[in-house]
Amino acid sequence: MSAAYEDRLRAFVGREIHPLRPGQDPVNVPMIRHWVEAMEDDNPIYLDEEAARATGRDGVVAPASMAQAWVMRGYAATAAAKGGGPADELTDLLAEGGYTSVVATDSEFEFHRELVPGDHVAAREVVESISPEKTTALGAGRFITSLRTYHDQDGEVVAVQRWRILRFRPKPKPQKPQKPEGPEERPEADTGERPEERAPRPQPAINRDNAFWFEAARERRLLIQRCAACRTLRHPPGPCCPECGSFEWDTVRASGDAHVYSFVVNHHPRHPAFDYPLIVAVVELAEGTRLITNLVGVTPEEVEIDMPVVLDWVDAGPESSLPVFRPVAQEGH
């Protein structure tokens, strides 16, 4: 990149790209209820006034991790807000450099106080840093780190979030080598038909917390993370036990027996690596943990909640295997 382009990027460091803007709704119990049900968080301080007061609080509080949710807007409101502001200017500048794709990498929160129903949260965002171009597995890119500060209706800071994304230049698709035509080789008659090649399956995002799981999957072993202190099983993998807070863990190997806990059937949008309709299911393993997977060897009409299924594997790449599940009756097929 030219020095002029680098200077234009650096000019965004320290610049506010989203001015202080309140969320559309105040903190409220219905949204808290939706959140804790989705997260299966049964801490009573979020919905039970009496239980919350027993802990010394004035009443129920919102889960700390909801801070970002209170200022998020739907698609229509987000699209309507686009109009050439600093955030759009930065996006356009990155696109000018070829960094047209984006993936979130990490988020760090610092909470100053608990939010309660009636609080009205607002947030502003400032660019903290833009990295030099880095070579990543996704392609050459730049890490954009911004600082989001969350305020209440009185202007007090309630949380600070350091948010990092990777804007990258997608790698070009490899071209198949052309076989030279020898003196005795002649092109076959063109029938108009072309064999369809399966597009590569999207690869999972692997980090230091889940690498062990994907390494085992590569060997077609389905592991479940287990707390070494209280022996609680958990999935997806994480650094800390949600039950006792221990950072020590080991693993157990899943039996492969499970049942369908929930499922959806995807029709659109279509990705060329998959067959449609695509059944995406949450299966509950015999050990008690759940994972999101695909169901194979069954039609959408045949799938039922609580249907017994058994572990199978699909090759997701040259060095990648992922667990899928099929009806028990088709075990071994």
For this entry, give a set of tags.
333 residues, alpha+beta, Thiol Ester Dehydrase, Chain A, 4 domains, six-stranded antiparallel sheet, five-stranded antiparallel sheet, 6 helices, 14 strands, 15% helix
Describe this structure in words.
This protein has six helices and 14 strands. The radius of gyration is 25 Å and the shape is globular. 15% of the residues lie in helices and 32% in strands. It has four domains: 3-24 and 69-168, Hotdog Thioesterase (Thiol Ester Dehydrase, Chain A, Roll), CATH 3.10.129.10; 28-61, no CATH class; 206-253, no CATH class; 256-333, OB fold (Dihydrolipoamide Acetyltransferase, E2P). The strands form three sheets. Strands 1, 2, 3, 4, 5 and 6 form a six-stranded antiparallel beta sheet that branches. The protein has a five-stranded antiparallel beta sheet with strand order 12-11-10-13-14, covered by helices on one side. The protein has helices at 3-10, 29-39, 49-54, 75-81, 86-96, 211-218, and strands spanning 16-22, 101-111, 122-130, 134-135, 140-151, 157-168, 223-227, 233-234, 249-253, 257-266, 278-285, 290-294, 308-317, 320-327. The chain has 333 residues and is of the alpha+beta class.
- In terms of DSSP E residues, the strand content is 25-35%
CATH superfamily of the largest domain: Hotdog Thioesterase
State mean pLDDT (0 to 100 scale).
89
Helix-strand sequence: HEHHHHEEEEEHEEEEEEEE
CATH architecture of the largest domain: Roll
Q: Any idea what the radius of gyration is?
A: 25 Å
Please outline the major beta sheet: 6 strands, antiparallel
The figure for the number of domains is: 4
